[in-house]
Amino acid sequence: MGEALVDLVPQPDGSIRPQPGGGAWNTALTLGRLGVATSLAWPISRDAYGALLLAPLAAAGVETSLCPRSNRPTALARIDLNSGDATYRFDDENSAGRIFLPAQLPPLPTDCRALVIGGISLAAEPCGSTVEQFATDASRRGIPLIFDLNIRPQAIQDKTEYRARLDRLLTLSHLVKLSAEDAAWLAPDTAPDETAARILALGPRIVVLTRGAQGAMAMTRRHRLHAAAVPATVADSIGAGDSFNAAFLASLLHGDALDSPDSAALTAALTLATTAAAITVSRPGADPPWADEL
């Protein structure tokens, strides 16, 4: 559950290319392409951009029956690229996703194996409260909560309330993924791996820290494993963290190891995730790999 929006990606010729995206949308797309039975839950506009969001999900086998349709516009992310690194400016005031109310919440599927949340869907209202309510209810029912922080400072309305929401959800989470940039925002004067260790102490069973070209680390109370980044020629960084998160989760689910992974399961998940991220950054926009590419 989380944002589905359209990235407005600048092209070399000065034009702008609309590209479907959003943290949760990218994650759902990657999971579907990797053969994991996946549903997305987020309001989708009836405008032309809404159709642009739905078509790739359908091609990847992602279920969208949990997505209420809305007459409000699709949220937009205006992207600036600097040597392939993407920064975002969000235009989501009164959008389909921003005005996501508790009355629109779908029922939690009875066969749900995990719930993934994170990103800008938690940073604004009323959608932030709606997602938190759904995630809290799911966690209380024993559904593992996968929390990809994916912090976008430009989207945060109320920094104090946002931090409080993160703290509440971190204590409920089963697996937390954060980037070095997320860690720096949370604790500017603390090393990222120390911030990851502090999050682990709050209750999650697994914490994963990504560090771009420096690779990634997976932590549990018994493990601290590192993986090098897979070399790639970078087109841009759009969707890289989302594809990493999805591939890491897919590996654990395929191995039936989400509940209590051993070192072999964590190593396999890191390997798949770093490979998926390398493929994604090698292609323009959020275009994660299919299973046969891995």
UniProtKB/TrEMBL annotation:
Transmembrane segments: none annotated. Gene3D superfamilies: 3.40.1190.20. SUPFAM superfamilies: Ribokinase-like. One of its GO terms (molecular function) is kinase activity. Keywords: ATP-binding, Kinase, Nucleotide-binding, Transferase. CDD domains: bac_FRK (cd01167). Belongs to the carbohydrate kinase PfkB family. This is Fructokinase.
